[in-house]
Amino acid sequence: MGAVWHPECFRCHACNQPISDYEFSMSGNYPYHKSCYKEHYHPKCDVCKQFIPTNMNGLIEYRAHPFWLQKYCPTHEMDGTPRCCSCERMEPRDIQYVTLDDGRKLCLECLDSAIMDTSECQTLYLDIQEFYEGLNMKVEQQIPLLLVERQALNEAMEGEKNGHHHLPETRGLCLSEEQTVSTILKRPKFGAGNRVMEMVTEPCRLTRRCEVTAILILYGLPRLLTGSILAHEMMHAWLRLKGYRTLSQEVEEGICQVLAHMWLDSEIMSGSGSNIASTSSSSLASTSSKKGSRSQFERKLGDFFKHQIESDTSSAYGDGFRAGNRAVLQYGLKPTLDHIWLTRSFPC
């Protein structure tokens, strides 16, 4: 600091009390008590709220979610700290996430717009159908939509024989086989410890009247995530009903992800109060705009779901989306679909 101080004048920049300790900390040209410096500059864990400890080399080491930038101690990745099954954020010690009947955890912000039973999802289903009609891609067949638990979804997937490809954790399924599926009939209530209680399900026999038997969606996810999964599965249905056959994983999953991403775009735009619309989605935003502006968190959540699609590292979903999105941006959706029909590949 290059200066001489009276003892009572050499004060901490944070608390303005004299520094009498032999050791002190500096930030810029300002002195701090070591404890004050730690309080102001040492990062705290967003999960346990404690100062993030230094590693064996004396360096502060922490993890951070790439989108939410939630900082946490590395030990929380191994100590059983739950993550929200929707937004992936870790459960802070001072907040209790909801425990769904199939063991998934849901944060309270995602719970706020979560869709919990089949009847509750029908309005969103109509929104997705309007979205497809706005693209001149009306799905003529009335396809049953059911919200189900994770176990029922996994069992239905095992019963499929058409080689349909899915992410490691399946959250939606376009069925083409006849099956009996247990669907959620009544929105569950939450009891002690934020655990689901009074879950009402009933078996539903699905009979095949066309190439698509039903669409199944995992229950308990926020509206924007449920809608993007539904938009994805609706594209599988549209492709089958229109006779698109033997597409590669990358092409089929890729174009389905493009439609999910487009729907999210239209929802975020229509819920922001903006009148500016891109040509690909200006006619698609009629339904959600009726609901008024979204909360700041829900808009952020929509951006996160888009980020998940855009940054997916898998060849089918990630590379497929990026190839399909490039094609749609360059040539338009209909020419891209026409090219897929003729060549079973994306235009270059």
Task: Please tell me about this protein's structure.
By secondary structure, this protein is α+β, with helices and mostly antiparallel strands. It has a domain at 114-343. 37% of the residues lie in helices and 14% in strands. It has helices spanning 34-41, 108-111, 118-134, 150-158, 223-241, 249-271, 286-289, 296-311, 315-331, 333-343, and strands at 25-27, 30-32, 63-64, 71-72, 98-99, 105-106, 114-115, 145-148, 172-175, 179-186, 189-190, 196-197, 200-206, 214-218, 221-222. It has a 3-stranded mixed beta sheet. Strands 1-2 form a two-stranded antiparallel sheet. A two-stranded antiparallel ribbon has the order 3-4. Helix 3 (118-134) crosses helix 5, helix 5 packs across helix 6 and helix 9 packs across helix 10 (333-343). The protein is elongated. It starts with 24 loop residues before the first strand and ends in a 5-residue tail after the last helix. Residues 273-290 have low confidence and may be disordered. Keywords: LIM domain, Metal-binding, Zinc. It comes from Cocos nucifera (Coconut palm).
